[in-house]
Write a structure and sequence with these properties.
Organism: Streptomyces djakartensis
Pfam family, one: Cas3_HD
Strand content: 5-15%
Mean pLDDT: 88
Domain HD Cas3-type: 20-233
Distance between the termini: 75 Å
InterPro entries: CRISPR-assoc_Cas3_HD (IPR006483), CRISPR-assoc_Cas3_HD_sf (IPR038257), P-loop_NTPase (IPR027417)
Protein name: HD Cas3-type domain-containing protein
C-alpha cells in the first residue's frame, strides 16, 4: 500500500488556499521535519554527557544511536493516524466548512465503527499504545509480564509523553490489539497507513539497527527532551509555511527522499534560531585571593584538583551570606561546568526579589566564565509571563549600573525570541530565578521531564538551599537524587551546616549510587565539601577554609513601641549627619507607613522604600539604585535609611551601619544582620513589632528566649552554636512552668505542620530515579485530590499578579501613556504587562474576581493575572469592591479588607 499524503499533521496558522480551503502539512512531512531537527539537536545541542547516557543505555554505537533518535522523534505523532484526530470537528475545512478529511470516512478502507469518533484517547496516548506492539514486532526487547521494563514499551511510552505527560504502562493484551480498547485507532487503511508511515520514517532516517539495551532514567530524560524540543521546533508555523507541498503531492518514496533533503536544510536553521547553540564554559583561570585560607582561596586551590581526579558532582558551601560566598559558589560552578562540558548555568534563589538582585553578579560571572554566545532570562513567577520582556525591562532598570540596556545587547534575547515562552525559557544558557523552577522538575506537573532535560545540560547553583521549609526540603532531596542520576553538577550554598544540609549530601550520594555511610558537612564556618557524581564518594578539602574577616555582632532587643524605637534608633544618625540604616517591616503596608512617617518626623533623613508589592519595573529600579547607594563604597552622603520587608534579606552587596528588624527566626535575623558594615555590625530587634505571617511562631519564640535582652556573637564561629541553641530541646528547661507549657504547644504545632508538609511532599513528589522500575508513567501520575492549588501551596505561598489599569491605559510617571485592550475584541499582549505586574499573596485578594473581559479570561498566559480597573477618587487611584479596597501610587499597592 502506498503512503496517503492526505493524512494531515499540521493545519493551524497555515492560512488558506485560493479556493478558501485550509492549507495542511502532510503528517509524513511533519514526522520527517521532526526527525531532521532531532539530528541537529543530537549533533549540536546535546552535551557529550547527555549523548553518552543514551549510548550507554541502548548499547549501540554513537552513529547508530543518532539515527535511532531521529527515527523515534519522527514517530512521535504517528497517533494522529486515527479517526478522532483526522476527523475532529476543529480540523482543517474547505471553503464550504466541510472537513477536508471527511472524504476519508467515505472510502471503504477508512471505514470505522460508530464509536470510533467518540474515542477520547489523545494522539499522544495512541502513539504509545500502537508503537509498543510494532517495536516488539521488529525485534525490540519486550516482556508479557513486565512490559514497562523492556525497551519496546519504554520507547513507546517515552514518545507518548511528548505532550508533557507520560501515559500509564500498557500490557501486551492491550497493545497487541489496541483497537479493541480504543476503536478510534481504526482498522484496515488506518492500520496500514500507520505501518507505511512507520516504515518510511525508518527507511528515510536509516535507523535499521535493533537496540538490545534498556531505557535508563537518564536516557529517558534526554530522549524525551530531544523529541519534545524537536517537535516544538518543527511546529513553528512560519517555517512550515515556507516548505508547504504543492497540492497533489503524492508522497512516493522518491518524493520523501527529496523532502528529507529540504527538511534537513531547514533543521539547522531552525535550531540556530533558538539562541541555544555555542555556549560552553571556559577553562577557569587562576584567581588571586586575599588571604590564602579564605573560602574562595581554599576552593580555588583545591576544587579543580578534586574534580579532575573524580569528575563533576556536588559542592556544598556553608558560610554566612555575603558576596564572597556567592563568588565562591560561582567559582565552583565554573570549575564543574568546564569539567562536565556543560552549556550553561541556572542560579536559583528563594524569592523573585533575591533573583532580581543577583542577576547583575551572575552576569558578571557569565562574562568571564561562559564562551560563545549566551542568552539570559529572568525566571520567577512575575517574569514567567514573557521571560525575554522581563530580562529586557530588568536591563533597562539597571541601565545606569554595570549592565547595559542598549538595544542589541548580546545577552538579552529579543521579545520575539523563540525562548520567550513559559516552557522553553529554562533552556536558555543562563537563567537566574527561584528554586521553584527546580522543585517543579520533581513534581507531577506538565513538562516536568523537560525541566530535568534543561538542567541536565547545565550547572545548577542553589543559594540559601535551606530556606524553603519542610515541603521545599523534601522536594529538594528528590531533585538532588535526580541531579546525581543525571550527573548534573550542583553547587549548594547555605548559611550553616545542620541535619538538612547533611540530608542533601546524602540525597546526592544516593542518586549517584554511593554508599550508605553518612557524610557530615563540617559544622565550623566557613566550610565546603564535595560529592562526585560518578560514585557518590564524599571528599573534604585537604586544607579547610578559615574565616578571614572575623567580627562581633551586637544584638539589642528592645521592648518599646515599634515606631518609637525605630525613630529613636535612627535619630543619632541624623544628629551625626551621616550613617546608613536598614529597617525591616513585616508587610508592604507597614513599610509604606514607616517610610512616610520617618520622612515627616526626621526631615534630615534620606528615606528610601523598596518592597515586593511594587510594579516589577519600579522594584527593579529601586533595587538597582540601592545597590549603588548602599554598596560598601557607595557615594551617599548624609544620614539615610532603607525601609523594606523580608524580601531584602537575600539581597547581596548592601552595607549598613545599623540593621533594625521586627521579631523573626534566628536564621532570618542573621541573614539580615549580614548587611551590617565593618567588624562590629549592629542589629536591633523590636520585640513588640508584628511578626510576618509566614514566620514559624515557635521559632520566633525560641529566638526571643535565646536572645533575651540582647547578645554579642563572635562571627562566624558562634553562629552554628547559637542556631543549635535555638533548636535545642533543653531550651524548655530554662523556662518557668507556664512559659515551658506554651513553648511545648508551639513546638508540637510546628512538628505537626512539618510532618504534614513532609508527608504531603512525599506523596506528591515523583519517584526517585531508582524507584521507577522502567515505568515512566510514574513521573506523570495523577492522584485524586491533586489540584493546582495543592501544587502551588507546596511551592510556597500562592501568588497572584495584579495589573492596575487607569481608564484603559497603563500609568507611566503619572501620565496615562500606553493603551491596553479594555473591550471584548482586542487581545492584550502579555509581554506588554510584564513591567507593570505587582505580585500579591493570594490570601490578600481571596474572593476578588477582577475586571477581566472575555478575551482576557480566554488567554492562558493571563490566567494568573488579576486585572483591576482603577478610578480616581479624592486625589488617588483606588478600586473598591468584593470586600476589598485597593490603593496604588508610586509607593506601591496596598490592599485593605473592608468590614
Amino acid at each position: 500500500m502506498s503512503l496517503d499524503s492526505r493524512l494531515w499533521g499540521k493545519a493551524a496558522g497555515l492560512g488558506k488556499n485560493a479556493r478558501g480551503a485550509h492549507r495542511t502539512h502532510p503528517l509524513i512531512c511533519h514526522l520527517l521535519d521532526t526527525a531532521a531537527v532531532a539530528e541537529v539537536v543530537w549533533d549540536e545541542l546535546l552535551t557529550s554527557h547527555q549523548r553518552s547516557m543514551v549510548v550507554g543505555a541502548l548499547q549501540v554505537p554513537d552513529e547508530e544511536v543518532r539515527a535511532l533518535a531521529a527515527f523515534w522523534a519522527g514517530l512521535h505523532d504517528i497517533g494522529k493516524i486515527s479517526v478522532p484526530f483526522q476527523l475532529h470537528r476543529s480540523g482543517p475545512k474547505n471553503a464550504d466548512g466541510e472537513l477536508l478529511a471527511q472524504e476519508l470516512g467515505g472510502e471503504q478502507g477508512y471505514g470505522f465503527a460508530a464509536d470510533a469518533a467518540q474515542d477520547r484517547q489523545s494522539h499522544e496516548a495512541a502513539a504509545h499504545w500502537w508503537l509498543a506492539g510494532i517495536f516488539e514486532e521488529i525485534g525490540y526487547p519486550s516482556s508479557k509480564r513486565r512490559p514497562q521494563s523492556q525497551l519496546s514499551h519504554a520507547v513507546a511510552q517515552m514518545l507518548g509523553g511528548h505532550g508533557g505527560r507520560y501515559h500509564p504502562a500498557v500490557y501486551s493484551k492491550d497493545y497487541r490489539c489496541p483497537v479493541a480498547r480504543h476503536p478510534g485507532l481504526g482498522t484496515s487503511s488506518w492500520e496500514e497507513q500507520r505501518r507505511v508511515h512507520f516504515d518510511e520514517v525508518r527507511r528515510v532516517t536509516g535507523a535499521t539497527s535493533v537496540p538490545q539495551g534498556r531505557m535508563t532514567p537518564g536516557a529517558a530524560v534526554v530522549l524525551t527532551g530531544l523529541v519534545t524540543l524537536s517537535d516544538w521546533l518543527a511546529s513553528i508555523e512560519v517555517e512550515i509555511r515556507a516548505r508547504l507541498m504543492e497540492e497533489g503531492w503524492a508522497g512516493a518514496p522518491e518524493d520523501l527522499d527529496a523532502y528529507w533533503k529540504i527538511a534537513r536544510e531547514a533543521a539547522l536553521r531552525l535550531v540556530q534560531k533558538t539562541d541555544l547553540l555555542g555556549t560552553g564554559f571556559a577553562r577557569p583561570d587562576p584567581v588571586q585571593c586575599a588571604g590564602e585560607t579564605s573560602l574562595l582561596a581554599s576552593m580555588v586551590g583545591q576544587l579543580t584538583d578534586v574534580v579532575t581526579e573524580h569528575g563533576p558532582g556536588l559542592v556544598v558551601v556553608t558560610s554566612s551570606p555575603s558576596e564572597e560566598r556567592t563568588e565562591a559558589a560561582l567559582r565552583a560552578a565554573a570549575v564543574l561546568g568546564h569539567a562536565a562540558g556543560a552549556r550553561g548555568l541556572f542560579y536559583a534563589l528563594p524569592t523573585g526579589s533575591s533573583a532580581d538582585s543577583h542577576m547583575a553578579q551572575v552576569h558578571a560571572f557569565a562574562e568571564q566564565a561562559l564562551t560563545g554566545p549566551w542568552r539570559s532570562l529572568l525566571l520567577h513567577s512575575s517574569s514567567r509571563l514573557k521571560p525575554a520582556e522581563a530580562a529586557k525591562q530588568w536591563a533597562q532598570a539597571h541601565a545606569t549600573g554595570d549592565v547595559s540596556a542598549e538595544p542589541g545587547e548580546e545577552w538579552a534575547p529579543a521579545a520575539n525570541s523563540w525562548l520567550n515562552s513559559h516552557h522553553r525559557a529554562l533552556l536558555a544558557a543562563l537563567g537566574t530565578g527561584t528554586v521553584d523552577e527546580l522543585l517543579q522538575a520533581v513534581m507531577p506537573v506538565k513538562f516536568n521531564v523537560m525541566r530535568l532535560f534543561a538542567f541536565s545540560g547545565k550547572v545548577v547553583v542553589v543559594d540559601e538551599a535551606h530556606a524553603r521549609g519542610a515541603w521545599g526540603q523534601k522536594l529538594m532531596l528528590r531533585f538532588l537524587e535526580w541531579a546525581a542520576a543525571l550527573r548534573i553538577p550542583v553547587v549548594l550554598a547555605a548559611m550553616s551546616a545542620d541535619k538538612s544540609v547533611d540530608a542533601m549530601l546524602a540525597a546526592y550520594r544516593r542518586g549517584a549510587g554511593g554508599g550508605k555511610e553518612p557524610m557530615v558537612q563540617p559544622r565550623r564556618l566557613p566550610a565546603w565539601s564535595f560529592v562526585d557524581a560518578h560514585s557518590g564518594g564524599g571528599h573534604l578539602p585537604r586544607q579547610p577554609a578559615q574565616a578571614v574577616r572575623a567580627g562581633t555582632l551586637s544584638i539589642k532587643v528592645l521592648d518599646g513601641a515599634p515606631y518609637d524605637e525605630i525613630q529613636a534608633a535612627l535619630a543619632p544618625l541624623v544628629e551625626a549627619g551621616n550613617g546608613r540604616a536598614v529597617v525591616y517591616r513585616s508587610t508592604p503596608a507597614e513599610a509604606i507607613r514607616t517610610s512616610l512617617q520617618l520622612s515627616q518626623d526626621l526631615p534630615g533623613l534620606d528615606v528610601t522604600l523598596v518592597h515586593e508589592q511594587m510594579r516589577n519595573k519600579d522594584r527593579w529600579r529601586r533595587l538597582a539604585a540601592c545597590r549603588k547607594t548602599f554598596s560598601p563604597d557607595g557615594g551617599i552622603s548624609g544620614p539615610s535609611a532603607l525601609v523594606t520587608t523580608p524580601m531584602l534579606e537575600h539581597v547581596r552587596g548592601l552595607r549598613f551601619d545599623l540593621v533594625v528588624s521586627g521579631p523573626a527566626p534566628l536564621a532570618d535575623l542573621l541573614a539580615r544582620a549580614a548587611h551590617g558594615a565593618g567588624d562590629q555590625p549592629r542589629l536591633v530587634v523590636l520585640r513588640a513589632d508584628n511578626k510576618s505571617e509566614l514566620d514559624d511562631v515557635a521559632l520566633v519564640r525560641r529566638t526571643d528566649i535565646v536572645l533575651g535582652a540582647g547578645r554579642t556573637i563572635s562571627m562566624p564561629e558562634e553562629v552554628p552554636l547559637l542556631l543549635d541553641e535555638v533548636y535545642a530541646d533543653e531550651l524548655v528547661d530554662r523556662l518557668g512552668e507556664a512559659a515551658a507549657h506554651e513553648l511545648h504547644q508551639l513546638d508540637n504545632r510546628r512538628t505537626v505542620r512539618e510532618r504534614r508538609a513532609t508527608g504531603t511532599a512525599g506523596w506528591l513528589q515523583v519517584p526517585g530515579p531508582r524507584e521507577l522500575d522502567g515505568d515512566l508513567g510514574l513521573l506523570s501520575r495523577d492522584h485524586p485530590g491533586m489540584e493546582p492549588e495543592l501544587l502551588s501551596s507546596v511551592l510556597g505561598e500562592e501568588m497572584v499578579h495584579v495589573v492596575c489599569l487607569y481608564p484603559g491605559s497603563l500609568l507611566e510617571n503619572g501620565v496615562l501613556k500606553e493603551k491596553l485592550a479594555r473591550d471584548s475584541k482586542r487581545r492584550p499582549k502579555p509581554g506588554q504587562l510584564v513591567p507593570y505586574l505587582i505580585p500579591v499573596p493570594q490570601r490578600l485578594v481571596d474572593g476578588v474576581a477582577g475586571d477581566a473581559n472575555s478575551v482576557w479570561r480566554d488567554m492562558a498566559a493571563l490566567k494568573t493575572v488579576l486585572r483591576l480597573n482603577m478610578t480616581w477618587e479624592d486625589g488617588t487611584w483606588v478600586r473598591t469592591g468584593e470586600g476589598h479596597r485597593f490603593h496604588v501610587n508610586e509607593l506601591g499597592l496596598t490592599v485593605d479588607r473592608l468590614p
